[in-house]
Amino acid sequence: MAAVGRAVANPHSTDLCVLEDRKMSKPGALDLASGLGGKIEKKEVLSAVEKYEKYHVCYGGDEEERKANYTDMVNKYYDLVTSFYEFGWGQSFHFAPRWKGESLQESIKRHEHFLALQLGLKQGQKVLDVGCGIGGPLREISRFSSTSITGLNNNEYQISRGTYLHALGASQELNRIAGVDKTCNFVKADFMKMPFSDNSFDAIYAIEATCHAPDALGCYKEIYRVLKPGQCFAAYEWCMTDSFDPNNQEHQKIKAEIELGDGLPDIRLTRQCLEALKLAGFEVSSVFLNFLQVIWENDLTVDSPIPWYLPLDKSHFSLSSFRLTALGRFITKNMVKALEFVRLAPEGSQRVQSFLEKAAEGLVEGGRKEIFTPMYFFLARKPHSGSAAEAL
């Protein structure tokens, strides 16, 4: 689909690329060990793992309990897994469509740039990243588009990591050169109850984040409220596709593994997300402007030349994303076991690595069977005036 805008060219792009290769290395084993558990006291990590697991079907939990306690469940999840994510993925925790000959990291950046272009981001705009993680996409999109981005996240540990990486550590020089050290910030808050005034932002996006919401409609209504009239919301959603059969036990097993390994109350169907957007008041039907399609939705996994789940596929090997391969994960598993044995990593760390491994298996099978997508994309617009949401 054609982009509706162009990002402002960054005069320091060469400097950024050189610095990025030099500065943005992934954490090592001791970083992984020290970060395990996040803000949870090290002696309480095993107890937190047990409580988290009990929310899920594999351990006797149910969907309604997960939705009722989504804040506790999702916070425990990200306290427990963030250091693993950084160790394996770097600073951007998401999948991406991938071209032949393209590295995983290159595809992730392109995926973030695509979102900025679809939103038509322009220099000086005020943008909201809903569920920003530790701020990898936020920093990339801000550099690319010269926009001011607020990262919203309800997990204290991820906010602290994002703030640290933003102001210090590996990204300090990158942020200073790009100018994003002064234009971006983080806010700790629940995206179901945002602490922003109505009509505050020029654009809003979410990258594989609002899938943690217990209620899509409630989440989208909050996004609608804080978005300025006439402006757009774009997202990549985790969804079950129309090929998912709720009466198929294997399909249900795959869904449960993904929910357990990724901190999800439920996984909605693509059409449920679309319906929730409409009920929230967004325009989501195809709209064309000067022959360009500016409002649209599509599963981006369908046309990806390389399967999105390839980095997690045990049959795949890559030096550039080695830690995600079967051998890399085997090494990580044994490293975590050793770190826990010598008490550099807290008790329960192996349990976390285990349910993340189970999630990887579920994601690969869900992708192969085409019953799950992490890239249901939509670009929706808040009307200039009058909407269904305003009447609710």
UniProtKB/TrEMBL annotation:
Pathway: Steroid biosynthesis; sterol biosynthesis. One of its GO terms (biological process) is sterol biosynthetic process. GO terms for cellular component: endoplasmic reticulum. The keyword Oxidoreductase does not apply. Pfam families: Methyltransf_11, Sterol_MT_C. GO terms for molecular function: sterol 24-C-methyltransferase activity. Keywords: Lipid biosynthesis, Lipid metabolism, Methyltransferase, S-adenosyl-L-methionine, Steroid biosynthesis, Steroid metabolism, Sterol biosynthesis, Sterol metabolism, Transferase. InterPro entries: Erg6_SMT_methyltransf, Methyltransf_11, MeTrfase_SMT, SAM-dependent_MTases_sf, Sterol_MeTrfase_C. Residues 77-383 form the SAM-dependent methyltransferase Erg6/SMT-type domain. Its EC number is 2.1.1.-. It comes from the Eukaryota. It is an enzyme of class 2 (transferase). PROSITE patterns: SAM_MT_ERG6_SMT. Belongs to the class I-like SAM-binding methyltransferase superfamily. Erg6/SMT family. This is Methyltransferase. It comes from Tetracentron sinense.
